[in-house]
Amino acid sequence: MKYNHQTIFQTLYYYSSILNLENYFLRLRKLNISRFTGTLDIKKSSDLKDLLLSEPILDLARSYLNCKTLSVNASFFVSNSINISEKEKYENAQYFHWDNDFTKFFKLYIYLTDVDIGSGPHVYIPGTHKVKLPQHKLCRLYSDENINKNYNDKRIFTGKAGSLFFVDSYGIHKGETPIDKSRLMLNVHYGKGRILYSSDDLSLKIN
After folding, report:
1. At 25, which CATH number?
2. Is the model's pTM score more than 0.90?
3. Nearest to 65, CA basis, from 194, 196, 186, 157
4. 207 residues of the chain, pLDDT tens digit each
5. Closest CA to 150 of 163, 129, 168, 136
6. Rounded to a whole number, what is the distance in angstroms from the first to the last CA of the chain?
């Protein structure tokens, strides 16, 4: 059976109190699924669209991106606390990396479950969106050892369900591998210009 990503997300987000997310995560863990993701259709009217295109966020986009055309992409990520290989961590982007989706962009992350050290928090190396060491200018994945020995500062984002934060993900970052609790989060790209990565993405003019 083919599932619609929008329906899955709405079910998890709006009806989590009924479904019990822990039972859902448990079923995924039993199937040995470490990561599950999908895009969300934000072209249709919804409370989520109203939030993502609210005036404070559009003001940030105008100021930070200095653009008249904005592209927005939204997706959800489920990361499960199961034992996985280094190869799977690599494939799950749980190694340090940086993104190059647009010429300039930022991301909004919203935790939809409580996230602590053991449930895969987002980790960011401050300042690397502006300056990276020469050996980290290739768009590839880097080990913890490589990054930790070259940069002194590191920000770890933990928080309760509903916590949100913005980052310029041209900087070096990663999602930690969950150890004892699964994580559900929303990942939203705001990019300069019109680049649509999926049919669910939205492009709009901002003045």
Report:
1. 2.60.120.620
2. no
3. 194
4. 334 444 445 545 554 444 567 777 777 777 777 778 888 888 887 888 888 999 999 999 999 999 999 999 999 888 888 787 888 787 777 899 999 989 999 999 999 889 999 999 999 999 999 999 999 999 999 999 999 999 999 999 999 988 899 999 999 999 998 998 889 999 999 999 898 888 888 999 997
5. 136
6. 43
Residues in the chain: 207
Tokens at residue 68, please?
């008249």
Domain that holds residue 28: 5-205
Into how many domains does the chain fold? 1
Burial of 3 (0-12, 13-18, 19+ CB in 10 A): exposed
Q: Which residue has the tokens 């987000």?
A: 13
How many CB atoms are closer than 10 A to CB 28? 17
Q: Which two tokens stand for residue 5?
A: 């990503």
Q: Is 106 exposed, middle or buried (0-12, 13-18, 19+ CB in 10 A)?
A: buried
Helix (H, G, I), strand (E, B) or coil at 181: coil
